[in-house]
Amino acid sequence: MKQNIFLKAVAISLLILLTHFTQAQISGIVLDQNSKEPLISATIISGKNFTTTAADGTFSIQAQIGDSIEIKYLGYHNSAFLIDNDYLKISLKPETAMLDAVNVVALKEEEAEKRRIKAATVAPVTIIGSQELLTKAGNLNEILARQAGIQIRQSGGLGSAARINIRGLEGKRVQLYVDGNPLNTPDGSLGINDIPLQVIERVEIYKGSVPAWLGGDGLGSAVNIVTKHRDVSYIDANIAHQSYNTSNLGLILKKSWKSIQAGIGVFNTQADNNYKMAIPDQENLIVERDHDKFHSLLIGGGITFNNLWFDEVDFEGAYMSTHKEIQGITQNIQHAENKGKTYVGVMNLSKTGLWNDKLSFRYTLIRAKIDVAMVDTSSYSYNWDGTRTPSIYGKGELGIGPNMSNTEQNELRQRLNLNYRLGKASTLNFNQNFRKSNLDPRDDVANEHAGKNLFNYPAHLFHSVTSLTFEQENKNQKLLFSSAVKHYYNHTEGYNTNIYVQGEPEYIKTNTQSWGYVLGMRYTLNEYLLAKAVHERAVRLPNTQELFGDGVLITPSITLQPEEAYNFTAGLVYDRILKNYRRFQAEVNGFYMNVDNLIQLAGNGLSIGYVNYAKVYITGADVEVKADITSWLYAGINMTYQRVVDNNKYIPGTKEVDNPTYKKDIPNIPQLFANLNAEAHKDNLFLKKSKSRLIYNLSFTDAFNYGFALSVNDKFVIPKVLTHTASIEQAFQEDRFTITFEVNNITDELVINNYNQPLPGRTYRIKLRCLLLGKQTHNHN
């Protein structure tokens, strides 16, 4: 069956590759009249045919000499004339009466790139640009949660566990990337807020299918954070403070010479998170969180060389330390805490113009060392009234004994991406990622308490994801067809440690392989409307915690099989520039996913471990509309409906015992949620070269269950919630100095989006930012 699917994908790709068109073609390039830089995603129209310019400003369109042609680009005067040559060099003049120079540059680097990415992908993609990130007083989690199809499941304030949920799939099933490189932390999750907003150029959110060139595993959705690589000297400093003694400090220093750029950044975040909360299942008991402090320090730097044989050579390094107290919800935890240190070194090499200007490649090598420590050695357990009792296990508040663990994880990762242009309208892309991870856990305190070695056993993981993608456009560039095959390989070695197993644990090696594929298309219906459809067989490889457990409560499951999903997504994208440069955008998507081998925790009465048994299917739709209502008022609204349903007819592990939750909605996943965003802006309201913005955000989540309701007496309901956020942004000197004030959750609603764990109520925030720019010394491609 897998071979048949693979052969079909290859056959379709070859059929498209061998298809030729005989229509006449006119090609050319579109440039800025002043800077002579290429304009990306300019619209070219000739009769009923149209196209957009590529990343280098070039285009090809079905037309003949003597036909009329029109070129449009937001922020520039239109150009229209009769074609007199089969190659056209077109220069457009900036419309400075409508947009100042800063806005034109921002449009070229951001809005045009958004349009290009949307047109170049067959999967639905949401793009958040740096202009939407930098001045915000909130954090990245909150910005992501305002997008269509996305929820952020949080267990508390800043630094607490936060999992992204896209179309019903969450946490480790949604792959995270930085500059196309997959991220995996020891427990399979990532604190997205650990990445400062200052270093982000844009955030790409792929829904329903993950482009094969990203190369990682996952079950159909991904977030790729693209960091800034601008060849300009600058100083970027910000300071922010908000309720519950939360503060953020960030400083970036960047110096650019003709062929060398060097920079360093320091970011410090801390929070007390001492908000009040109601204790679940204890009526009228409200307490202040007093053991939830968080602190992180990130220091990073890099140097880039241009104009060598390589177009670009990057060397980067980073150090990060975190300290997080563990706050109890049903139990008053007072002494347990987590600490972590991470060291990362990165080398990037890139080169274009090889093999008759058809081949380009990018190579990334990452070396990382991650130390994670957990301390839980209290001799007492604490009650909410402040009294204490001796720990029933002698020591420890969380598990069945004390812990003073330290897990050292050494990682080596590489990514190789080769892109070969077969012709003007077809490309072949090869991507290969591998990850080699060695874990060395140690916990002498827990071993002494257990009377035997439970923790000090090493483990090894190697996994590889290899993909080959073929893309073909017809000559008028209306139809884009994309097909890809992906191979997943996973090798693990570890010990079957378990507190209930006598003697030495068994040493186990395992190898698994799996295939995936992607088939998709994008059809340009007219100048403003795109249709997209994509089908994917997606695979997620087990992570280290699922495979190797924690030595005490969670036993190893080294023979776990990968999760797999069959995903179908189709939608329409509408994007039109109206009169007076007002823009209207709309997008609607429907999706279906059938997920198998879902990895979940299960118990046998003595211990718990991860097993492959759950099956679910997911159906839903999301819609988004954004518009410039007037020259000074912008508004956007999005809505998502989704159902995640248990598809196990029989209780897992049996073949005849009916499953009481069959066809019931999986708990703890909202079915209906929506967001409204509005912005009023005015230039030069107070001073010349100033910008004023008033921003309002509304978020609604309908009621949903956090447990299976098997009878009328089961009450596991998280109530519906409607929250309001408002902020004022004032920028001076063309965005060089910005002050932002924000009130989040204005009406102080009780917000719960992860079981019974309440989030902070109303919060006040203020942020100051200073950006000092130097001169650009090098054109970055």
TrEMBL record:
It is a multi-pass membrane protein. Gene3D superfamilies: TonB-dependent receptor, beta-barrel domain, TonB-dependent receptor, plug domain. Residues 120-220 form the TonB-dependent receptor plug domain. Pfam families: CarbopepD_reg_2 (PF13715), Plug (PF07715). GO terms for biological process: siderophore transmembrane transport. Belongs to the TonB-dependent receptor family. This is Outer membrane cobalamin receptor. It comes from Aureibacter tunicatorum. The lineage of its organism: Bacteria, Pseudomonadati, Bacteroidota, Cytophagia, Cytophagales.
